[in-house]
Amino acid sequence: MPQTIRVAIANKHRLYRECIKHILEMEMDISVVGEMSHADEINNIVDMAHPDVLVYDENLTRDDTVEVIRELSQKFNSLRYVLVTAQTSLPPLNSLKKLGIYGCVLKSSKLKDLLLAIRYAAKAETYMDPRLEVREDHIISLEDDANQLNHLTPREKEVLYWLSQGFSNQNIAKVMYLSEKTVKNHVSRILKKLDLSDRTQAAVFAWKTGLAQNTPEQLLDVLERKK
After folding, report:
1. 179 and 83 fall within a common domain
2. Most buried among 34, 90, 102, 144, by the most CB within 10 A?
């Protein structure tokens, strides 16, 4: 039998807490040992119930969530946290882990993401909602990627599209009726604007944002609508 994960839920809405508790207790390896509706209750409940993981909703208090958890982590250094947030931009991953935050899920996340985050956190491993991209120094959401795409000109988007289809600069130049040098300059500007280091990262970016999934005919329609 796997070791039972002791979980506490911190959320100011009673209905939410009861729903999450009911769902979690249907899992064989999870036991809900405490609930709290205000940050002031956390110390006493953690002291008494000794949870392994605290599912912490960022709206529990008006105070800065990271600062609240920072204070808690100084007292309960073995407690791990799963942060439930609506934020699309979070502090650096390493900073979160130092505070004991091993899981981050969005308020719109699926139940399976919350369960995975809890189980990963219990093992001191990180789990982020799939809609959050984890990079070495920060976390950004796919919505942020889409916003970055809007920083490109229509011509740069078209170059990025053909690049994502595996075209070389020479072939992109032919299909777009440009000089190879002009294409090379466009690629350099694209990498700089998107803060990417090479063509491979640019191609991955294009597929993630959906740009690369268009047909050439659809691409022209997309570019026309964005003008």
Report:
1. no
2. 102
CATH code at position 209: 1.10.10.10
The string of pLDDT tens digits covering residues 67-120 is: 788 888 888 989 999 999 876 556 666 667 888 889 888 888 888 889 999 999
| Domain annotation covers residue 167 | yes
% of the chain beyond a pLDDT of 70? 83
Query: Does 160 lie in the same domain as 75?
Result: no
Q: What is the pTM of this model?
A: 0.58
Full domain range(s) for residue 157: 150-226
More confident residue, 215 or 38: 38
C-alpha–C-alpha distance, residues 187 and 191, integer Å: 6
Tokens representing 182 are: 């002009």
Write down the pLDDT at residue 224: 61
Own/partner contacts of 158-161, CB < 8 Å, gap of 24 or more, are 158/219, 158/223, 159/183, 159/186, 159/187, 159/190, 160/190, 160/202, 160/205, 160/206, 160/211, 161/206, 161/211, 161/212, 161/214, 161/219
24 and 127 belong to one structural domain: yes
Count how many domains the chain has: 2
